[in-house]
Amino acid sequence: MALVKQTGAGLANANVYADRADADAFFLAHGSPAVWTAADGNTRDGALLITAPLLDGMRRWPGAVL
Fold first, then answer.
1. Calpha distance 9→28 (Å, rounded)
2. I need a labelling partner for 26 at 20 to 30 A (CA). Which of 43, 44, 49, 61 fits?
């Protein structure tokens, strides 16, 4: 499945809040843990795809469309 990053434009087909480049930059800035850097692209994308629904279900975010 392709990653479609939510940009704030209300994309109906968005499925992630951060793409692989965003996550790579985050982990690089925060010590680049070996588990993330050793994972292949499909594994990284899968982790990002799992994260968005988890964040959505955690709480009501300001501006959330319900």
1. 27
2. 61
pLDDT, tens only, 3-50: 999 988 888 899 999 999 999 999 999 987 888 989 999 999 999 999
Tell me the CA distances in angstroms from 35 to 38, 52, 53, 61, one per residue in order. 5, 20, 22, 29
d(CA 10, CA 28): 28
Residue carrying structure tokens 């499925």: 15
For residues 60 and 44, give the distance between their C-alpha atoms in angstroms, rounded to a whole number: 26
Does this model's pTM top 0.90? My answer is: no
